[in-house]
Fold this protein.
Amino acid sequence: MNKLNTKAELRVRVAEMAFPAPDMEARFRERFASRITADGEVLLTSHTGRSQAQNLDDCLERLAALCRAALIAPKVRRPTRPTRASKERRHEAKRHRAEKRRQKGLDL
């Protein structure tokens, strides 16, 4: 059991972070919206290490990983058409559901 106070907490304001690209801050906010508090801070905690310094280093590494992830621009999706087989599967499923409904309406 960890009886020492070795937990590290890192709070960083997103608005004060220096991003190399102007659109990177918006991408960071969009991608990690669930990690950003109402005050606009990213909150990272760590309590895995045996010392507070180790845990602080872990928090800094995780923040760097988040920033690296925000650097990568999302790939643009090229719209594709449904294949003939997928259309046929969809129509077959619709026919099957319609047949089920027709069977339910019969009084025998």
Q: What stands out?
A: The CA atoms of residues 31 and 70 lie 7 Å apart. The longest helix spans residues 84-104. The mean pLDDT is 89. The helical segments are 24-31, 52-71, 84-104.
